[in-house]
Design brief:
5-stranded mixed sheet; binds zinc ion; 11 helices; alpha/beta; single chain; Nucleotidyltransferase, domain 5; about 15% strand; binds 5'-O-[(R)-(carboxyoxy)(hydroxy)phosphoryl]adenosine
Length: about 350
């Protein structure tokens, strides 16, 4: 094991003489991903999804870690190959230390540690939520503008719903978060009640496109400050569907678009009202979104409308950088590399790793 100090010295030498090539590895939930970033520019971004969970209506942790074990070597191999580099060109390996599922994190962490040891290069642990925020700084061939500091980031995924005050690449404060379910969970649970397969968020989005968002009304919980709550919405939605199907057994199939549009509209309204409150409280008018739910077309439209109405600047990442990916881990690793923040071989997964 190399002591941290020596790694810092080594990083400085590499920094001055060679391009910085970071291999990022992500395995926090049910996507096995690897990406290569060279001097901040994305060279490859590979994601292997796990279809095995579809039949169970949610991620089965044990099956996820087994699938990661099967996928990790081919995914990393493909990322290195597509980047057109040799493994000896890699400067450091960045991996997701948490938050996430213990068994899933363990696969990525163990692989990253072994590979770094084998190549005798530094190891960089990354917080998955920091990665979602820094996905905005991934440079690819079509890179547009990047947010400037400070900005607010609404991070909405299957496991998290946070409003983050981002002062710089490393200084991030959670100023609001969910007290129960995440927004992605609300989408997925609503979809499950409608008998749609997991993950249901994209299917609600798809069906909502042809529906009337004001057709059905659902009660929104009142939560203080900038926090969110989605569990009551799920119960209210389930009761509504049960009542309607007891009157008409074809209610869901006959009204699927309107039901999806209405529940999606309610979730988006809950997110947008807290985001606008955060803008007023902080006076910050640069808004970014991140996480899987940032792929939602209704949320994207609402943010664009906010931009026009409020004169704020909105940053919406490309679809492939919203859902779990390793490019966001690699870019975070790149910034940590330049700062000289490395981990040792004693590092271990942290399922509740705080931002
Ligand atoms: O960030 P992510 O890929 O994984 C986690 O870290 O959780 O987010 C996955 C979540 C799932 O709940 C999925 O249903 C949701 O993001 N999601 C969507 C859409 N695409 C993915 N939710 C609503 N609309 C979408 N288009
Ligand atoms: Zn995520």
């Amino acid at each position: 094991m190399l002591p941290v100090k020596r790694l810092k010295n080594r990083a400085k030498v590499l920094n001055m003489n060679q391009p910085i090539v970071i291999l990022g590895i992500e395995s926090s939930c049910d996507d096995t991903a690897a990406a290569v970033i060279k001097n901040g520019k994305l060279l490859s971004n590979i994601v292997a999804n796990q279809d095995v969970h579809k039949q169970y209506g949610g991620v089965v942790p044990e099956l996820a870690s087994r699938a990661h074990q099967q996928n990790i070597i081919p995914v990393v191999h493909q990322a290195i190959k597509s980047a057109g580099i040799n493994k000896n060109d890699i400067s450091a390996i960045a991996f997701t230390r948490g938050p996430g599922l213990m068994g899933s994190l363990l696969v990525g962490t163990s692989f990253a540690k072994s590979f770094a040891m084998g190549l005798n290069i530094p190891l960089i642990e990354v917080n998955h939520m920091q990665g979602h925020v820094l996905a905005h700084f991934i440079e690819d061939n079509e890179s547009g503008r990047f947010p400037t500091f400070p900005f607010l980031c609404l991070t909405v995924s299957g496991g998290h719903t946070q409003i983050v005050l981002v002062k710089n690449h490393f200084d991030m404060t959670v100023i609001g978060e969910t007290i129960d379910d995440a927004a992605g969970e609300a989408f997925d649970k609503a979809a499950k009640i409608l008998n749609l397969p997991y993950p249901g968020g994209p299917l609600i989005d798809k069906n909502a496109k042809t529906g009337n968002p004001l057709q059905y009304k659902f009660t929104k919980p009142s939560v203080p400050d900038l926090n969110f709550s989605f569990s009551g919405l799920k119960t209210g939605f389930m009761n509504f569907i049960n009542t309607e199907t007891s009157k008409n057994s074809n209610f869901v199939s006959e009204n699927l678009s309107d039901i999806c549009a209405s529940i999606q509209h309610t979730i988006i309204e809950m997110l947008m009202s807290k985001l606008q409150k955060a803008m007023v409280q902080t006076g910050i008018k640069q808004i970014a979104i991140a996480g899987g739910v940032a792929a939602n077309s209704g949320l994207r439209t609402s943010l664009k409308e906010l931009e026009e109405k409020e004169g704020c600047t909105v940053f919406i990442p490309k679809f492939q950088y919203c859902t779990d990916n390793a490019a966001m881990i690699a870019i975070t690793g790149y910034y940590k590399y330049m700062k000289g923040e490395f981990s040792t071989q004693t590092t271990s997964p942290s399922p509740r790793y705080a931002l």
